Amino acid sequence: MQLVCNMALEDGIEPAVVAAVVAADLAALDEDCALALQFTESVLARDPGAEHLRERVRLAWGEDGILSLAMGISTSRVYPTVKYVLGHGLACSRVHIAQRTVAPMPLPSATMAHTAIGGVSP
After folding, report:
1. Where are the alpha helices (DSSP H) in the chain?
2. How do residues 67-112 score in pLDDT, each as one tens digit?
3. Proportion of the chain above pLDDT 90, given as a percent
4. For the chain, what is the domain count?
5. What does the DSSP 8-state code read for residue 97?
6. Helix (H, G, I), strand (E, B) or coil at 17
7. Sorting pLDDT into bands at 50, 70 and 90, what band is 39?
8. Among 122, 118, 102, 115, which residue's Cα sits nearest to residue 46?
9. Whole-angstrom Cα distance, residue 107 to residue 24?
């Protein structure tokens, strides 16, 4: 996560925006960033609310936007998963963004409250 945050900063993304995404602070994001973050978190949580958000994404950015987010979401999970399997999963418990330390936070999901350990609903 630190690497991706550093690349976002190098690409000119404002530190406050990067920090807000990491902290899942929707109130600090513009409407487009908040939508992308909500959709991403819903998809990763397999939240049924992703269906509604997908339609909002389609209206905002079309099929190319859906495909772009699909590729970004999918590929962004490979490296952290491999890292976690190899025993380095706690390395991103704190992220440093422009002299500020931010704790990564997931957005609450409608399905998270109903999911047991192991990802299986009771």
Report:
1. 2-10, 15-22, 31-44, 50-76, 78-85
2. 999 999 998 888 878 888 898 776 656 788 887 888 777 776 544 4
3. 53
4. 1
5. E
6. helix
7. very high
8. 115
9. 6
Are 105 and 24 a contacting pair, CB within 8 Å?
A: yes
Residue 9 sits in which domain range?
2-114
Q: Which helix (H) or strand (E) holds 100?
A: strand 100-102
Tokens of 119: 């990802």
Triad 64, 70, 73: Cα angle to 5°: 135
What 3-state class would DSSP assign to 101?
strand
Position 119 in a domain: no
Q: Is the predicted pLDDT of residue 119 greater than 70, yes or no? A: no
121 falls within a domain:
no
